[in-house]
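UDP-N-acetylmuramoyl-L-alanyl-D-glutamate--2, 6-diaminopimelate ligase
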Amino acid sequence: MNLQELLRDFTTQSIPNCEITGLETTSSRIKDGFLFFAIEGHHADGHAYIAQAVEAGAVAVIGTRTEVETTVPYLVVEDIRYVLAHVAKRFYQNPSASKCMIGITGTNGKTTTSFMLKEMLEASGLRCSLFGTVKYEINGEEFASLNTTPDSLQLQQYIHKSQDDVVIMEVSSHGIDQRRIEGLEFDYALFTNLDHDHLDYHETMEAYFEVKARLFTQLKPSGKAVINTQNSWGAQLAERLEAQGIEIVNVPHANLLEERAKTTFPTIKGMHNRFNAAMAWVVAEDMMCTRQLLIQGLHSFKGVPGRFQLYPLTTGATVVIDYAHTAEAFEFLLQTAKEEGARRIFHVFGFRGNRDRTKRQKMLDVSTRLSDVVILTVDDLNGLSVEELLAEYDELDYSGTVIPDRTEAIHAALHHASSGDWIIITGRGVEPYKEIYRHGTTTDDEMVLLYQQACHAPQ
């Protein structure tokens, strides 16, 4: 595509007349005829790689710095992430316009809702692409997930490549704020809930909410919102959207949902997962999928890796590995264990270094109220030393057990639990931690659990 056509409306500078064969933000992936976007990121500055990109074949460069010397046309823009998203949309001929696009946002439940919805729609004969925390899947092929929401260029490339009928996306607040979904057009936008999280990034709950709400400004003219209004933030969002004339698909009230759960999705454990199922159900139902096929899809749903994943032990105890990392998620998870008849609950979890410290006490309060034994450990350190993170723990109102090494913390719970007890391990689910713990190279909670069962659990 011609560079003048690609950059029309995005710069007042004179745009040279040249053909562009591809777009790229990473200099090592540049090929002949590419347009290179020199983006200043958290870990690297693309302006430092302009010479490398040009040597590799870039015929033009977009950047934000004014004092740049290069042998190819260089154009300056103010908001490069915005320009990248819309140039990619133009280059790939707006692929989201011809797909059924479903975006799911909220603090908790995005992953489970997306997997449930995919199961229901595929039981109804529709092929689905999926983008989220656990994996990306396009045309039946799976790819590793680097971010919950891929960047705008990747998304346009993936959707252009997709031959699936439906694209289901988890949409993170970081993804919205960093313009990763900029330019996409959605048929359905879902809001699961909002809980205290990511305030190290957004600073206030109000700012966090407003970022989430931006997803709903990207609905197609015929697009619909699906909102859990039993969360106060959801109720506020629904009121706003109704005033704007946006159609809202109602999610059943809790009492009705409880009745429906007994007949429609009885195997789904926990009220939080019933809400996730209800969110998925109303979308699929609105897409004219038949009730029988939706039930079939739910009954074949085997869960999501690292989300309420059950491991029965030979001792008669049960282990649950879950991604929960907010107070509300803890509440749902621990209450579900009680509903399922847990004799005692052992809760193993930790906090991440250089992340939102303001939510820690709330999480700890919920855990100590609903658990019989709390074992506080660490999550990713993110640049802190163990000693520095533990010093922050000393500021919390907590006098219970602290075992810094995550492997040892899980071992302690396994050692003390007996028949009928539930061991709840929350953190990154089955995603790897950055740290290497004391016993070998086990890097995620599932691998730690399996290692401990093999080497340290009571015989």
